[in-house]
């Protein structure tokens, strides 16, 4: 075991059999899938027996098998799935078979606790069947129904408001069955409570192993802006490309977009139409080493998304010692402290985004060094071991204090 594992307050307690239910997992690449892999790996490293229920990604991956993720082995129960029409990677399990599949897997695994990561399909089946068997239920919400509409082409626009409401009602039903409910940030917890009848939602950071990133404080040889994430509508990457087009050419700023997704072709076409094909690089999906290399070479990280419930990629950038320019939306202000480790811009405002990026790229060396150090300091509080400690307490039925709420009380008292 590593020294970090030995420091766990749960050391010496009986190991648990933990079943994680996920509607998205590797090889799908997104924040929720990344969190699940790191959570499962951390729990396995602590000696727990970890099982994951997730969609298959081909006919060859159906059934129960041992897979290795983040350097740890875990048991996967891959269920038959279909690819979402018109989407390059999104898959979904059969809703009409989820209760039957959940019952079969629960009777086979006999877990001590079920931690479901989505209410959409697998969470509904796991909470219904797990509740019947008296299994402890813990739920984490990574989902906003508004985002799903980007892929719901068959829903007419005039029905989308009703579809969003129905989405939240479905979420409320599944999460109401859980003993504990979490979200990655306090802002996301408040959002879930505002849209459902679920209460006492605890904010637990997705966590990051900051030691796995090299906090590079050295000056960078070029003005490179880096974005990391899935190329989808809510990320608003087109605004980032447009912002680059109106920045002072004397800066010779370049943009590297790391990640893949359904908008890759459109974004390439946009860069070409703006005459930026020699200054904008779209890498597509990359391995972890390539991702970290891009963050090491970057001068500033940009996150224009308007729908982040935490943003693991922003935390990865901060752990790499980068200042951040991010949209003042959802949970991003939780990570980006305006004027301290970066700047917040008005969501969707291309001119404001360009101005904030220009400010960072033209800061004096001693000023930018302060921003870099502050990014490292802020992300240190999101250490993955704290996240593992909190979830392990929940799995054991122990009382957990919301660290975000406790921080607010301390601020008010000071």
UniProtKB/TrEMBL annotation:
Domain spans labelled Glycosyltransferase subfamily 4-like N-terminal: 29-211
Keyword entries, A-Z: Glycosyltransferase, Transferase
Gene Ontology molecular function, alphabetical: glycosyltransferase activity
GO terms, biological process: carbohydrate derivative biosynthetic process
Residue span, Glycosyl transferase family domain: 219-364
Pfam family, one: Glyco_transf_4
Superkingdom of the source species: Bacteria
InterPro entries listed in its UniProt record: Glyco_trans_1, Glyco_trans_4-like_N, Glycosyltransferase_grp1
Full protein name: D-inositol 3-phosphate glycosyltransferase
Gene source species: Salinibacterium amurskyense
């Amino acid at each position: 075991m590593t020294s970090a594992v030995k420091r766990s307050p749960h050391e010496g307690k009986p190991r648990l059999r933990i079943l994680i239910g996920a509607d998205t997992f590797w090889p799908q690449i997104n924040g929720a899938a990344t969190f699940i892999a790191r959570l499962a790996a951390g729990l396995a490293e602590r000696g727990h027996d970890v099982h994951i229920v997730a969609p298959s990604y081909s006919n060859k991956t159906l059934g129960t098998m041992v897979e290795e993720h983040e350097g740890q082995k875990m048991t996967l129960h891959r269920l038959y799935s279909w690819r979402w029409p018109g989407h390059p990677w999104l898959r979904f399990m059969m809703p009409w078979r989820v209760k039957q599949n959940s019952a079969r897997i629960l009777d086979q695994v006999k877990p001590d606790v079920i931690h479901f990561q989505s209410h959409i399909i697998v969470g509904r089946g796991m909470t219904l069947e797990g509740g019947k068997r008296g299994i402890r239920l813990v739920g984490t919400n990574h989902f906003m129904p508004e985002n799903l509409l980007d892929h719901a082409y068959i829903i007419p626009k005039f029905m989308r408001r009703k579809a969003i409401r129905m989405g939240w009602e479905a979420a409320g039903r599944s999460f109401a069955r859980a003993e504990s409910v979490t979200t990655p940030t306090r802002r996301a917890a408040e959002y879930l409570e505002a849209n459902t009848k679920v209460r006492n939602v605890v904010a637990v950071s997705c966590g990051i192993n900051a030691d796995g990133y090299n906090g590079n404080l050295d000056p960078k040889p070029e003005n490179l802006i880096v974005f990391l994430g899935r190329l989808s509508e809510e990320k608003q990457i087109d605004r980032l490309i447009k912002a680059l087009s109106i920045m002072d050419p004397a800066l010779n700023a370049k943009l590297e977009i790391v990640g893949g997704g359904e908008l890759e072709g459109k974004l390439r076409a946009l860069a070409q139409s703006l005459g930026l094909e020699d200054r904008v690089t779209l890498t597509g999906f990359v391995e972890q080493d390539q991702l970290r290399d891009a963050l090491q070479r970057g001068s500033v990280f940009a996150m224009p998304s308007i729908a982040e419930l935490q943003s693991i990629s922003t935390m990865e950038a901060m752990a790499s010692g980068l200042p951040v320019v991010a949209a003042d939306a959802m949970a991003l202000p939780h990570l980006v402290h305006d004027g301290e480790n970066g700047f917040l811009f008005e969501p969707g405002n291309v001119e404001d985004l360009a101005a904030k990026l220009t400010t960072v790229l033209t800061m004096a060396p001693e000023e930018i060094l302060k921003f870099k150090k502050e990014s490292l300091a802020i992300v240190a509080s999101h250490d993955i071991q704290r996240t593992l400690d909190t979830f392990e307490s929940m799995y054991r039925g122990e009382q957990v204090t919301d660290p975000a709420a406790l921080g607010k009380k301390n601020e008010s008292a000071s």
